[in-house]
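Ticket reopened. Same input as before:
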Amino acid sequence: MNATRKLLRRVASVPTSDGAGVKLRRSLGARPDLRLDPLLMLDEFYSDDPRDYLAGFPPHPHRGFETVTYMLDGHMRHEDHLGNQGDLGPGGLQWMTAGRGIIHSEMPQQTEGRMRGFQLWINLPAAEKMQPARYRDIQADAIAELTIEQGRIRVLAGRLTLAGRAVAGPINGEPDTLSTDPLYVDVRLGPDERLDLPVPRSHNAFLYAFEGQIAIGGSRDGKGEVLDAHEGAILGAGDHVTLEAGPDGARLLLIAGRPIGEPVAQYGPFVMNTREELEQALADYRDGRLAEPV
Ligand code: FE
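Engineering reply: fixed in the latest deploy. New output:
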């Protein structure tokens, strides 16, 4: 039976800062109870003022989940204790599995101009939290783009079948099989265009508008269904979502994942299942044992 996913809950993006003072807007994760299993956090950074981003994200630790950075504009350089170096440019993607521990930095490689992109945190199940850290740097041209009548879709992770064509993102199955099986797409729609986007029934789904207006559920007439730019929405159950762009077109992220269903204990950049495991992570970090020796 086909079922349309409705807007279940609006999630405002809250201005905040992170790293050494980078200004950003946080939607998921803005409050401890505002997660959508397995999605822990979504930040949007967007500024033309270097003072908002120059300080960057100097070396800091993570344990127990994955961080996914998607750049739209600007350049950042990633370095981590494993010796990975990555240049994140417009349209590029960085997928980092922190696992048992990683210490990394992300620093702007520009002193002027626009810096714009997203950072998403995806949880790992208990059985996978202490795996060795892994890092994948995916350049813009390695990301499949599907051009359709209504606009275009970039598939960052997972698989999408639309208009008779199947597209797979660079993070999709071996060697990147993730038990959360994430679907992560960047959708651009022309003015007033309408699109039915399939979303696996097994997944929780979040939508984040970042340009223009988007109506969820097929009609902008239905009150309370229109999302403005920089606004998110948790979607209800179903196997697809119907989107309709406003008169200026729209751009949005659709992020979905299979729920883990385990307790979440979080302290800043450490996400575990219990308070004891958090204390262990803090002790390991303090004693220089957080991350795998190189
Ligand atoms: Fe980080």
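The CA atoms of residues 126 and 273 lie 7 Å apart. The two ends are 51 Å apart (CA to CA). Please confirm and we'll close it.
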